[in-house]
Amino acid sequence: MEKIKITVENNVNAPLEKVWEYWNAPEHITQWNSASPDWHTPRSENDLRAGGKFTSRMEAKDGSFGFDFGGTYDEVIPHEKISYTMDDGRKTEITFIQEGSETKVIETFEAETQNPVEMQQGGWQAILDNFKKYVETN
Question: In this protein, which residues make up the domain named Activator of Hsp90 ATPase homologue 1/2-like C-terminal (predicted)?
């Protein structure tokens, strides 16, 4: 069975170098990596290289629920592309494209089967929107 792929994207009004750094540095990831204001990422680790691992602890702020989101990098091309395999085996690819004064971030991931595609797309887009807002205001 072929996996469903979902793509989310955003244009961030910031130079590519800043977008890359904020996307990958744990001290920034903990500031933007949430889909809604009642969630947060209290800690993040990132070994940004092919074969390196990453993990982000995502939790509801009220402590009612949390999980570790992680995986292993398959390919890292600085300022261009990141691909990784999530801990559950699904693949993700993120492309960074400088377009004038903006940087386009395109993220494509394989859907999981427990939640509707629209819900997954909405959640990942919300996180990407939060990333855009964080980069543009810091």
Answer: 13-136
DSSP string, 32-93: H--SSTTEEEEEEEE--STT-EEEEEEEETTSS-EEEEEEEEEEEETTTEEEEEETTS-EEE
Q: Where are the domains of the chain?
A: 5-137
One-letter amino acid of 17: E
- C-alpha dist (Å) from residue 93 to 36, 39, 63, 65: 23, 24, 30, 27
| Eight-class DSSP state of 116 | -
Q: What is the pTM of this model?
A: 0.95
Q: Residue 126 is inside which H or E element, if any? A: helix 117-137
* Model confidence pLDDT, tens digit, residues 73-95: 999 999 999 999 999 999 999 99
Q: Please give the DSSP secondary-structure letter assigned to residue 108.
A: E
Contact 96, 103 (CB under 8 A): yes
Enter the tokens of residue 82. Answer: 């990141």
Tokens matching residue 60? 């509801």
5-137 CATH: 3.30.530.20
| pLDDT of 2 strictly over 80 | no
